[in-house]
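Today's session is about reading a structure prediction critically. Students often jump straight to the picture, but the first step is always the sequence itself: look for stretches that repeat, for charged clusters, for runs of hydrophobic residues. Only then move on to the predicted structure, which in these notes is written as discrete structure tokens rather than atom positions. Here is the chain we will use throughout the hour.
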Amino acid sequence: MNSIKTFFTILLLISAQTIFAQKVFTEGTLKYKVNISGVADPQAQAMMQNMVMSTFIKNGKFATEMDMGMMKTRTIMQSEDKYVTLMDMMGQKFKYTMDKKQFEDKKLKDDNYEVTVTNDTKVIAGYNCKKAIIKTKDGNSFFAYFTDELTRGDKENYNGPYSKIKGMLMEYSMEKKGNTMTMTCTNVDFKPVSDDVFVIPETGYTEMTMDQIMKMGGM
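Below is the predicted structure for this chain, in token form.
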């Protein structure tokens, strides 16, 4: 049960942090390798060892997919007030919907952290990146490497938890209940994205509420 609880805690956090990729480019896919540390349960650690996250963008449509091998999820933004997550757990399929408030409640609020951009740089997935240090009001410290080579003139960032950083996040860390997650971009692909990525199936998935999803993870 601990491994399932850990997974759902992290899944819900990632779903809320990664869907926003607006105004970066009009169509394409970003892939990230996900590394998670601080997971004490060996079964949960094994499940999360090869996690890959993909963000799909197409003319105002956005979706984020998590692939853990035995388990896959896809969160689709249908509108600013409707986010649908599809889950496939070894053939068992569920879906749940978050409204804007539920979605926003899982994000780090801008007034809860400060950002300091350093002089450290490195190249990630072929893009020049600067390093920023994020310090939260509760004393935690995280990092983020970002690039402005993928943003438009507005310099807005929507692809991760730190909206104060004006650039595309290429590598960043965040924490939830003692588990530290690091997302590292491995590929930026501008090839056309299939419309099927954004389709919500009408059948084949059991509809659940957020409370039911939380209980499944023992939370």
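Discussion point for the tutorial: The chain has one domain: 2-216.
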